[in-house]
């Protein structure tokens, strides 16, 4: 009943000028439901490639990727993604950014739902603000609310706080743990900040550069209280 499973996953990219590149080689990874799993490693080691495969943005060359027991074939609302760049629509308010995906899927009461999730990320009162009127941290809060509103079982985060100053980053790490306490999603969290990984994760996968493997896993000896 494991949430995210990669079995013997390999990924080659075929580049026009410099030939094939092995980004992942025989990666095995199992993330339990409700677990926060951080992937750390140097730039280019294959972290985003793993996330893209789980998101369904790309397909493995070999091996299998499943989420809640189902093979991943395309992106879906069961897997929300938060990138370093918030990706909000600049012409929509915070509320309308969160509602957008719900309205596309014709989900009822989208305004109430959007308001609820904006409140959950600490943005009550900011519903009518446009992204340009919000700080970097607040924009990432909206991006997280937008993902949460879809009710994903898995949230994939690729350096979500990498563009924020140190203090905002800390407050976002705390927010993430609060959000986890409330909604209990499974989270794959990519970062190259080891301190950040230690703060948020139950388990940390450390990747090496060549040939794109998870070298070792570290598990918290004192599990976070999960009441
Ligand atoms: P990380 O997220 O750890 O920085 P990536 O997963 O982005 O690493 O990249 C792993 C390797 O695969 C890198 O060498 C990168 O240049 C290469 N790569 C990633 N995406 C592509 C692509 N679309 N085409 C060609 N090479 C790619
Ligand atoms: P964060 O969004 O992580 O709290 P920022 O440092 O980016 O952090 O916030 C910039 C400014 O916006 C700060 O002055 C902060 O106090 C204010 N701010 C952030 N979130 C809220 C909020 N929910 N309500 C009121 N002010 C906020």
From TrEMBL:
ATP-binding recorded as keyword: yes
PROSITE patterns noted in UniProt: ABC_TRANSPORTER_1, ABC_TRANSPORTER_2
Gene3D superfamilies in alphabetical order: P-loop containing nucleotide triphosphate hydrolases
Protein's UniProt keywords contain ATP-binding: yes
The ABC transporter domain, residue ranges: 4-227
Record GO terms (molecular function): ATP binding
CDD domains, per the entry: ABC_NrtD_SsuB_transporters
A Pfam family of this chain: ABC_tran
InterPro entries xrefs: AAA+_ATPase (IPR003593), ABC_transporter-like_ATP-bd (IPR003439), ABC_transporter-like_CS (IPR017871), ABC_transporter_ATP-bind (IPR050166), P-loop_NTPase (IPR027417)
Record's keyword terms, sorted: ATP-binding, Nucleotide-binding, Transport
Family: Belongs to the ABC transporter superfamily.
PANTHER family associated with the record: ALIPHATIC SULFONATES IMPORT ATP-BINDING PROTEIN SSUB (PTHR42788:SF13), TAURINE IMPORT ATP-BINDING PROTEIN-RELATED (PTHR42788)
Protein name, entry field: ABC transporter ATP-binding protein
Organism: Chelativorans composti
